[in-house]
Specification:
By secondary structure, this protein is α+β, with helices and mostly antiparallel strands. The chain contains ten helices and ten strands. The strands form two sheets. The chain has a five-stranded antiparallel sheet with strand order 1-10-9-6-7. Strands 2-3-4-5-8 form a five-stranded antiparallel sheet, with helices on one face. Strand 4 and strand 5 form a beta hairpin. Helix 4 runs antiparallel to helix 5. The radius of gyration is 35 Å and the shape is elongated. The protein starts with 8 loop residues before the first helix and ends in a 5-residue tail after the last strand.
Length: 384
Amino acid sequence: MQVMAGTPPGALTSLSSRSLLRGEEAVVGPLWLPMVLVFGSIGAVAYADFIATGVSLGYLYILPLGISAMFLRSQVSYGLIAVCVFLHDLFGPPYPSQEAPITHNLTALIAFAFVVYVIQRYVKQREQLDKAVRQQRDQLLQEVELAARVQRTFLPISRPSIPGLEIAGMMQPVGGVGGDYYDYVPVNEHTVQIVIADVAGKGVPAALLMSATAAAVQLEVSEKRDMLEVVNRLNNGIHSVSDGNRYVTLVLAEIDALNRSFRYVNCGHNPALFFQAQTRDVVPMNSSCFPVGMFDSISCEINRADLAAGDILVLYTDGITEAENSQGEEFGLERLSAVIRRDSSLSAEELMDNIFQSAEDFCQGVGFKDDATALVVKCSFAGN
């Protein structure tokens, strides 16, 4: 046999070992283990056949042949059948007649070959099934990644430049795709509309409905409709495709930096938190109507509030407040309010990062179990 110059001896041993194994087994697992099991069990059966002089133990060779059928190539397994028959002739008890070895060996060859064939056929079918499952899994992962890239296109790329307002937002999906959504859309040079939404459910169905909701919100807001009209049109569209089985909770707010005021509609969403710098109170802004898409029609009302320098508006999804630690305790609204009050002097970006970090620290390595999204608006008006 010709050997290429510079080939390490260990590489030849590995190559010869892999050539004995089945295709799947040659890739993973220790190379020596199948051979040790097969040849070790053949030796053990031969020794038992040798010391048991009064009874034939040839049927025990089915064990090593079955192992070889699972791990070794077909040619090797069928070759071992002849080895096992020879060893039984060598170490087994004497035959009663001269014709007995021929009949016994022929029967053994047929029986052993049948066992090896059945096991190898089963193993081959199992490998084909595993291969098909892996291919389907890889295809699904590619499709989910594509869906995640499409979903990310609905999230804002840049922040609006509104004098007197600092805006920061982030979504952290628990899987490849998520059911949360946030956005901020400038209306004019001093007004911006912000929205945060959470689709009921998880996984791909929630992500698809979220993408549809995001597209509808961007379309409706771009038409400069009133917030109540936007909510009603969203409700009609989502209810028509989901029939109430799936719905969306959302907060839609319009902030006017010139008049230092904001208006909002909360459709069944977690109460947005309004930090008032003058009193250092954190005021929850509760929902005023049902989630979008749950019923064929909803009746909402617009709530209003005045803003001052240092005030902060925090919108979030339940992935943050319902984050649990190892004891099953939730992060909760009180802890979130405490973080806002404690870090109110920071910028909107820093406060948002601290909210996520505080929730992650509380989870103590457990991690978020649901999509987590936060949107922070801080008022940096000049003067009081």
